[in-house]
Amino acid sequence: MKQAGFPLGILLLFWVSYVTDFSLILLIKGGALSGTDTYQSLVNKTFGFPGYILLSVLQFLYPFIVDPENVFIGRHFIIGLSTVTFTLPLSLYRNIAKLGKVSLISTGLTTLILGIVMARAISLGPHIPKTEDAWVFAKPNAIQAVGVMSFAFICHHNSFLVYSSLEEPTVAKWSRLIHMSIVISVFICIFFATCGYLTFTGFTQGDLFENYCRNDDLVTFGRFCYGVTVILTYPMECFVTREVIANVFFGGNLSSVFHIVVTVMVITVATLVSLLIDCLGIVLELNGVLCATPLIFIIPSACYLKLSEEPRTHSDKIMSYVMLPIGAAVMVFGFVMAITNPQDCTHGQEMFYCFPDNFSLTNTSESHIQQTTQLSILNISIFQ
Questions:
Q1: Mean pLDDT value of segment 289-311
Q2: Other C-beta atoms within 10 Å of 111: how many?
Q3: How far is CA 226 from the centre of its chain?
Q4: HSE on the CB side for 75, CA within 13 Å?
Q5: Which listed site, 160, 171, 290, 340, has its alpha carbon 20 to 30 Å from 352?
Q6: For residue 312, what are the contacts with CB-CB under 8 A and spacing of at least 6?
């Protein structure tokens, strides 16, 4: 919302969710047309070895760009402990269907976190000064926003794993599942984005929890819940990376020993990356434009266009022809903008409105940096 403009941001969320819904169904249709049952084999059969290598790199890198959050004091210890205690054991499963109950718990916690964000929008939002450009229709950084939204909806890299775990998998059953999932997801994203932006407007950070004060016990509980959702969700990403390694180097099969060794290596490297990075905004942007955008917009469309024998006027082909250039543009321009105009990040520092004296709502027309600096010096608070 901060990057795109609030009205345009809402429209873009609906658009990205529609494209995601379409491309997920297109992906399974491509698998049916080519007689393949993995994303890698689909691209390999469609575009040969170069396409196979490109997809493998994208799928392999995706989990390593995810930052498992900094939620408590001593984040390095907490991340290491939670990785060894929970993430690694869950990632050692061979059947992704066993993560179904875990994912359900994660979804329930997400709903709880949403309730906390909505509650703070009501209780905290009126006390936060609104920035001057808070309600403009569109902003020049909208392409960066599309990258972040693509990250939010990306699940193509594990689609075939989930599809194969269904009882009697068919394209029709997959389509119903995807329609329902995307509808739920887009409304969750809209409520999160709307409540977060209404609360903080131009002060909104890439990691929304960085906006809240440390002495807010309700939000601290929300941070804990979010950390748990990451712990419970990340093993699905590990499944994909491990599958890529198995397909590229082991002919698709891993022995019990190599299954453990590869899993430990993947989790170890990903954990080391998360320990070194504490700014979530740039992580979401780069992951969105470099990995999520080609996996959502470009590759499913390209595979379907090459495999399908439908006429060019068929609706699926028209949509695919539209998605390809848009995806390429988002990938190129989004990467350039993410590097030249990175999102703000406080690196765990308190925001200006968290200080306990002399709150003032004046001078709200100044820029984000000026306002943050000046009001911090005034040592202000909204909690009296």
A1: 89
A2: 12
A3: 13
A4: 18
A5: 340
A6: 318, 321
Strand partners, 381: 354
Alpha-carbon distance 337 to 280, whole Å?
Answer: 16
- How far apart CA 103 and CA 110 sit, in angstroms, is 10
The two structure tokens encoding residue 367: 């820029």
Q: How far apart are CA 82 and CA 88, in angstroms?
A: 9
Give yes or no for a contact between 155 and 301, defined as CB atoms under 8 angstroms apart: no
Helix (H, G, I), strand (E, B) or coil at 381: strand
**CA pair distance 55, 151, nearest whole angstrom:** 16
Tell me, rounded to whole angstroms, the distance of Cα 297 from its chain centroid: 15
Give me 115's structure tokens: 């309730």
Q: How many residues does the chain have?
A: 384
Q: Pseudo-torsion of CA 120, 122, 128, 131, nearest 10°?
A: 110
Mean pLDDT of the region 56-81: 64
Terminal-to-terminal C-alpha distance of the chain: 29
For residue 354, the cross-strand partners are 381
Give CA–CA dist 281/172, Å, rounded. 37
Tell me the three state secondary structure of residue 144: helix
Residue tagged 């001057």 (tokens): 132
Distance separating alpha carbons of residues 298 and 307, to the nearest angstrom: 14
- Rounded-to-integer distance, Cα 287 and Cα 2, Å: 18
Distance CA 254, CA 242 (A): 9
Give the DSSP H/E element, type plus range, for residue 361: none
**Rounded to whole angstroms, how far apart are CA atoms 57 and 93?**
23
Residue 373 has pLDDT above 50, yes or no: no
Side chain identity at 89, as an amino acid letter?
P
Determine which of 21-35, 65-79, 207-221 has the lowest per-residue pLDDT on average. Answer: 65-79
Let me know how many helices (H) and strands (E) the chain has, helices first.
Answer: 15, 0
Rounded CA-CA distance 221/242 in Å is: 32
Are 88 and 280 a contacting pair, CB within 8 Å?
no
Residue 27 has pLDDT above 60, yes or no: yes
DSSP structure string for 320-338:
HHHHHHHHHHHHHHHHHHH
Whether the CB-CB separation of 231 and 87 falls below 8 Å is answered with: yes
Residue 195: is its pLDDT beyond 90?
yes
The pLDDT assigned to 376 comes to: 36
Angle 159-99-278 from CA coordinates, rounded to 5°: 80
